[in-house]
UniProtKB/TrEMBL annotation:
Single annotated GO MF: O-acetyltransferase activity
Annotated Gene Ontology cellular component terms: Golgi apparatus
UniProt domain Trichome birefringence-like C-terminal: residue ranges: 22-313
InterPro entries for the chain: TBL (IPR029962), TBL_C (IPR026057)
Stretches that traverse the bilayer: none
Species whose genome carries this gene: Trifolium pratense
Organism domain of life: Eukaryota
Similarity comment: Belongs to the PC-esterase family. TBL subfamily.
The protein's name in its UniProt record: Trichome birefringence-like C-terminal domain-containing protein
């Protein structure tokens, strides 16, 4: 609304599970559960989107202070000695993003975790992983220092085998989860890990061909089905978390969970900034609009529900409290 969105109905729809009651977000409860802990959001811009949603809701009861930390954003709640951080790592593994001034494709080393977050992992109590959208763009994949294959690279004159992106996505997640398991095995510190499932986009047309998201109401029950790509990414994420759980059960002290948002996010085409987005939101006098954003979520908006579910998962893990039921 700050950027000129004329409607506000999207603020008042609320997702309701079929078989349980989802309470409103309780910032004091979240901070109490986070006391003396470090919660790290790691991944793409949707990780940051959810991180900012959480920060906004917590700031209603306690004002955090930014902490300078190279390569990430840290906020400290002195009232509870709780730290929230956000690490930019869209592939989770080591890689380079495509850019206007450089190569027009990503490069990923699928067997090497991104040191940006790996180096700080010993100080984290809960790791929240968010990724997926950056994999469906032209990329070259490496494993053991050799080219494994690529995605849509023929247009750049590169003679590599196109292997799609499902296998690389699975390998990147597996490498990251295995690194967490091995660090726990070596260091012995308890840690919780949550993987958020894929959040569908809502472009009415291709994003790079002036696709828009102009809907102002949610989809009704049965009106929209999860697409094949979204379903496959979600399946991979759930399978890899279950595999990591089995490995972690050998020695305990580590919890892996999935925050499944795919279907509830699918139902909210009305919750994106769309055309009401500016490139420099904190620069006075800058009114230029960017391309339609049908990936990220308005704040406040549907993404706040993800953090309501996140809090219920924290109650289960750190308080031994069963999830709320009707």
């Amino acid at each position: 609304m700050t950027n000129g969105r004329p409607d506000s109905n999207y603020l008042y729809y609320r997702w309701k599970p079929n078989e349980c009651n989802l309470p409103r977000f309780e910032p004091n409860t979240f901070l109490q559960l986070s006391k003396n802990k470090h919660i790290a959001f790691i991944g793409d811009s949707l990780a940051r989107n959810q991180f900012e949603s959480l920060l906004c809701m917590l700031s209603t009861v306690s004002k955090p202070k930014p902490v300078h930390h190279k390569g990430s954003h840290w906020w400290h709640f002195a009232s509870h000695n709780a730290t929230l951080s956000d690490y930019w790592s869209p592939f989770l593994v080591q890689g380079d993003e495509r850019s206007k001034s450089g190569p027009s494709f990503n490069t990923m080393h699928l067997d090497r975790v991104n040191e940006r977050w790996l180096k700080d992992m010993d100080g984290m109590d809960l790791i929240f992983l968010s990724f997926g959208n950056w994999f469906n763009v032209p990329s070259i994949y490496y494993e053991n220092g050799l080219v494994l294959g690529c995605l849509n690279c023929s247009s750049f004159g590169l003679n590599y085998t196109d292997i799609g992106f499902y296998v690389p996505l699975r390998k990147a997640l597996r490498t990251s989860l295995n690194a967490i398991v091995e660090r726990k095995r070596a260091k012995g510190k308890e840690i919780s890990v949550i993987v958020r499932t894929f959040s569908p986009t809502h472009f009415d047309g291709d994003w790079d061909k002036a696709g828009t998201c102009s809907k102002t109401e949610p989809y009704g029950n049965g009106e929209k089905k999860v697409g094949e790509m979204e379903s496959e990414i979600r399946r991979i994420q759930i399978e890899e978390v279950e595999s990591a759980k089995a490995k972690a059960n050998e020695f305990g002290g580590i919890r892996f969970e999935v925050l499944d948002v795919t279907e509830l996010a699918l139902l909210r085409p009305d919750g994106h900034p769309g055309a009401y987005m500016k490139p420099f939101p904190f620069a006075n006098g800058v009114s230029e609009h960017v391309q339609n954003d049908c990936v990220h979520w308005c704040l406040p908006g549907p993404i706040d529900t993800w953090n309501e579910i996140f809090l219920e998962m924290m109650k289960w893990d750190w308080k031994g409290q069963p999830r709320s039921e009707e």
